[in-house]
Amino acid sequence: MGQDARTGPEKRGTTAPEVQGRGVGPDYSGPGVEAELRGAGPDTGTGSGAGDYETLYTARASSGGDRTGRVTTDDGQLDLEVRAPEQLGGPGGAPNAEQLLAAAYAACFHSSLELIAGRSGVDTSGARVDTAVELRKRGKGDDYAIAVDVTVHLPEAERDTAARLAGQAQEHCPYFKAVRGNVDVGVQLA
In which domain of life is the source organism classified (predicted)? Predict the structure, then answer.
C-alpha cells in the first residue's frame, strides 16, 4: 500500500487538519462537476428537502434476483448480470455488488479530485483513483459492514500537494459524505 495522505493520528473517516476550514468553492462534486467546470449548470433553487442542496441529477437502478440476478438502470445504460463471488459461496463469473460499489466510489472520488485539483491549477494528467471495497462480517450473526480503501495517483503533483488535494477531494466527495461515520474509509497516496 502507498503512503497515507493524512497527517497525525486521524482515524479513517475523519477530516485531516490540512482540510478543515479551507474554502474551495461549492461543496459538491460528482454529478454536475463537468457543468461547473464549463461555467454552466442549473439555476439555484430552493432544493428538495435535503438541507440547502439542489438536486442536480437522479440515477435510478433496479436489482432483481438477490445477489444472483440483474441490475439495470432506467435509461438502459447499465444492464448487468450480477452474481455473488465464489469467495462468498456464489457462482462467480459476473460482477457483484461490492465491485459495483468499488467502481462507483472510484468514479465519484475521481470526479471530486479532478474538480479540486483543477481549481488549484494542478495538472491531473495521469490521475487515477483505485478503490478496494471489503465486505466484512463480525461474529456468527448477520452483522455485516463495508470498508473502502482509496488510493490516489496524482503523478504530476508534488507529494505534499497530492496529499492535500486527496484530503480535500475526500471531504467533497458525495459518496464519502454519504458513508461518513458508518463506513471505514481510508485514503492514501500511491
Answer: Bacteria
